[in-house]
Amino acid sequence: MERVMSEWVDIGALEDIPVRGARKVRTPIGCVGVFRTNANEVYALVDACPHKGGPLSEGIVHGRAVTCPLHNWVIALDTGLAQGADEGAVPTVPTRLENGRILIDRAAVTLRAAAE
Amino acid sequence: MAQRLVVIGAGMASGRALEELFALDPDAYDVTLFGAEPRGNYNRLMLSPVLSGEKTYEEIITHDAAWYAANRVTCRFGEAVTAVDRARKVVITAQGETPYDKLIVATGSQPFIIPVPGRDLPGVITFRDLDDVNRMREAAAVPGAKAVVIGGGLLGLEAAAGLRMQGMEVTVLHLMPHLMERQLDPAAAYLLQKELERRGISVRCKANTHAIEGTDKVEGVKLDDGTVIPADIVVMAVGIRPDTALAKEAGLACGRGVHVDDRMVTSDPDVLGVGECVEHDGMVYGLVAPLYEMGRVLARTLVGEAGAYRGSVMNTKLKVTGVDLFSAGDFAEGDDRDEIVFRDPARGVYKRIVLRDDKVIGAVMYGDTADGAWFFGLLKDRTNVAEMRDMLVFGPAFQGGTRLDPMAAVAALPDDAEICGCNGVCKGSIVNAIKTKGLSSLEDVRAHTKASSSCGTCSGLVEQVMAMTLGDGFEAKRNKSLCACTELTHMDVRRLIKSKELKTMPAVMQECGWKTSCGCASCRPALNYYLLCDWPGEYEDDYQSRFINERVHSNIQKDGTFSVVPRMWGGLTNPSELRAIADAAEKYNVPTVKVTGGQRIDLLGVKKEDLPAIWADLNAAGMVSGQAYAKGLRTVKTCVGTDHCRFGTQDSTGLGVKMEKALWGSWTPAKVKMAVTGCPRNCAEATCKDVGVVCVDSGYDLHIGGAAGLHVKETVVLCKLTAEAEVIEYSAAVIQLYREEAQYLHRMYKWIDVVGLDHIKERVVNDADSRKALADRFYYAQRFMQKDPWAERAAEGVHAHEFKPIAEVA
Ligand code: SRM
Ligand SMILES: Cc1cc2nc3c(=O)[nH]c(=O)nc-3n(C[C@H](O)[C@H](O)[C@H](O)COP(=O)(O)OP(=O)(O)OC[C@H]3O[C@@H](n4cnc5c(N)ncnc54)[C@H](O)[C@@H]3O)c2cc1C
Ligand code: SF4
Ligand code: FES
């Protein structure tokens, strides 16, 4: 597989996401949810719950986790792992916060599309 | 011969660096020190106490004339360096050129000024040097003068506290939802804000400055929402920027700050940098501790000794006398980490220690910071704390001390706090009755004080007051707590919100001793409802604590699309509404149009991005949200009634419409469904609704407590009425009582099971004053609730961020 260099793309300002909220980014691999925690950290996950594909970006954000809006699975934002008794994981997308701007790793949202 | 060392900037960093240098070798360099300020090095941190009047300028001078003389430092104060010619190795000032062998750039930072209209008006002051402080003190000397401080961070709050101590009327404007958001979590920020307000400083968070107003000097600050706050001075304390202008001009490599390596050397081997103006390993610093560490390394580099700067871990304290606050490290939440939270509502103490892999990685404390240094030590040394975990939060003195007290919230209540709302019994009277009458059972207390004798929802609190008063002699029943974040039950929390007048979520969590820092997905929606219900017009709905359906005012579908259900008052519609619905369905490619069980039409499968547009179209045809998603009034089903039906006894359709118009929009503990049916044949199924009206020849039977969902419940009759207006008033009163007393997510029938039908009859039927008061409170709240959420979003752009992706990555 060809190695894609990580390239950081600016997707918007921290203020564009409500505290304890999320926004979607459209990408070649589908929607990615970008989450802002109470502590102003930013994480990104592929926007599909490991249970039945629920849009995680519509869930309630608490601590460093989000509760899926469809059937209440709790997904860790930093690892993408389902918490508690539920099992499953969703791919995470690396993010960075620089001077109040949110950057995501382009390679992570194009890689698999390219590999297919 | 000694080499020539020129220093640009007589600030805190250069002062310390020179001390370190002279300690290593007093004779290595002849030093010339340039400072733009007309004075030598002083302790900039201490400008805050100078402003408040607790110290004088003389007391904060760090290096005086004698020191400069003893170390043969040539002082060029009040002389700004305007350029550096690195090729010729000279610095240039208005007075001429000065040659160097080695140069130190220590220019510090520039305060940031937000680019709003009016920022250049006289009276706009920054908070960086002694001149700024003198300007502020001068303004404060005028009796009745007002100050607005923009920025609720460390600097802004020290300015605000100082100006207040100088007698000014002070307002702090802060853009973020809570004060000092970079150093504090919402819980600690709540306590801080409470303390500042107690001192008479008014604090506005989420306040965005629109403009500074005034003709030839500052007169006020205008916010985005149009509010104007009068001001004689505006203190701008929104942040700082490394001062790199000179270095950039001289061609030194700069990012956010002047680039330096581990030895504090810039891109030019003869030029070094130190202090807030430098960037090391991607970091710039705004506190003195790192600058001191840099100074030590810089001095070693200058004398040719080995040394390396590796970045700093920092901690923060706020220098406002009487405010104890400490924060260090990374205190965000996370699943890879544990938090230990301790709250003492009585003393206003909050401590939170964040652990990862059994090591302290962050700490926030308010009210009791004595152990701050100890925690900071554990943090810096990466000490494994597994052994002391249980008692860790109590600090070094208490390894083996007390446990968290589940009754702390009740203990903290003042004597006049109301425990039983129905009968107006306060804590003091209960304690008094227990003591004087020697009561020892809940039944006795109930008999003597009337507390918890009506709806009974305060029983838990009464028991806690008993446990507190009787000590070991009484074991309070442990009822099921609201969630894992607290020991208290839903009802305990509801009472405390009232009796302690808690009006924000951080206030509830602090004063009720929450065990987590910001709650969970169970308690947040409940608290949001309780606060919204109890403080109409005051509490600001927290949409991030709402489930998606209520947040975006549509039902989410299994494929992530949404459904749209416009209101059809009483189940009535007309050709133009139907046409608008048909047009919208076509225009937005709605895949399914369905008649619901609630007598209206559901447009299923609408894309989220299309919601505001489809709502706008429906609004244009006079339709509003049917709130088919809300814990609030859903539908009022009606039958055709006297208008058409041969059995109809009253105008059931008309009454249904009136009820829906009066009651829509209100938030309730769970959904509320109603129906008005024209005769006991019950075609509108009124006897399985939360509120149902069965029309009869003699008037109206008002039913409550039905449901036909997971449990099928038949209604019970509350009373018989004779006029439509009565039906509406009684319904409003019942719903208000339900709003005030029920536990979140309990349908009406569950609330009736808890409080008993007699209690409701007592409050709504038998007591006209009580009924009227309930209805009045309901209608007061409706003034804030009856706003079509679709119109706000479609036309006014409320929550626009919800409906479009933040970006597209190709
Ligand atoms: C659309 C509708 C079905 C239909 O096609 O007719 C419907 C659809 C849903 N109902 Fe219902 N209910 C609908 C009438 C009913 C009725 C009948 C009625 O109101 O006369 C009932 C039984 C009566 C009752 O509630 O007592 C009903 C009992 C429920 C329940 C169980 C409630 C309970 O207390 O046990 C739920 C679950 C809940 O609310 O937690 C529910 C929840 C739901 C939700 C909101 C599920 C969800 O959370 O996503 C469904 C949303 C579908 C969607 O995406 O739009 N729905 N639901 C009806 C909308 C009525 C309206 O115009 O607003
Ligand atoms: C009110 C206040 C309270 C603070 N409280 C705290 C606190 O509690 N804890 C904490 O850790 N930190 C605190 N700080 C921050 C701390 O003061 C700074 O981190 C520290 O002063 C930075 O030192 P420095 O030498 O880099 O910059 P400075 O101390 O700002 O010194 C830079 C100097 O360089 C001069 N200069 C700039 N350009 C030129 C030029 N071209 N020619 C000649 N001279 C020039 C400037 O006039 C200035 O005097 C506070 C700051 C302020 C303003
Ligand atoms: S009965 Fe109600 S909740 Fe169940 S599938 Fe049908 S619409 Fe959904
Ligand atoms: S799809 Fe997320 S919990 Fe079911």
From TrEMBL, chain A:
GO molecular function, one term: nitrite reductase [NAD(P)H] activity
CDD domains reported for this sequence: Rieske_NirD_small_Bacillus
Ranges where the Rieske domain occurs: 8-104
Database matches in SUPFAM superfamilies: ISP domain
GO biological processes: nitrate assimilation
Annotated source species: Albimonas donghaensis
Keyword entries, A-Z: 2Fe-2S, Iron, Iron-sulfur, Metal-binding, Nitrate assimilation, Oxidoreductase
Protein name: Assimilatory nitrite reductase (NAD(P)H) small subunit
PROSITE patterns recorded: RIESKE
From TrEMBL, chain B:
Cofactor names: FAD; siroheme; [2Fe-2S] cluster; [4Fe-4S] cluster
Domain NADH-rubredoxin oxidoreductase C-terminal residues, every copy: 316-382
Amino acids binding [4Fe-4S] cluster: C639, C645, C679, C683
Domain (Nitrite/sulphite reductase 4Fe-4S): residue spans on this chain: 630-767
Residue sites binding siroheme per the record: C683
Keywords associated with the record: 2Fe-2S, 4Fe-4S, FAD, Flavoprotein, Heme, Iron, Iron-sulfur, Metal-binding, Nitrate assimilation, Oxidoreductase
Any single biological process term in GO: nitrate assimilation
GO molecular function, a single term: metal ion binding
InterPro entries (UniProt xref): BFD-like_2Fe2S-bd_dom, BFD-like_2Fe2S-bd_dom_sf, FAD/NAD-bd_sf, FAD/NAD-binding_dom, FAD/NAD-linked_Rdtase_dimer_sf, NasD-like, NiRdtase/SiRdtase_haem-b_fer, Nit/Sulf_reduc_fer-like_dom_sf
Free-text remark on how the cofactor is bound: Binds 1 siroheme per subunit.
Gene3D superfamilies, per the entry: 3.30.390.30, BFD-like [2Fe-2S]-binding domain, FAD/NAD(P)-binding domain, Sulfite Reductase Hemoprotein, domain 1
The organism's place on the tree of life at top rank: Bacteria
Transmembrane stretches, start-end: none
Boundaries of every BFD-like [2Fe-2S]-binding domain copy: 419-467, 483-531
Pathway involvement of the protein, from the record: Nitrogen metabolism; nitrate reduction (assimilation)
Domain FAD/NAD(P)-binding: 4-278
Domain Nitrite/Sulfite reductase ferredoxin-like stretches: 556-621
NCBIfam families: nitri_red_nirB
Family: Belongs to the nitrite and sulfite reductase 4Fe-4S domain family.
Protein name: Assimilatory nitrite reductase (NAD(P)H) large subunit
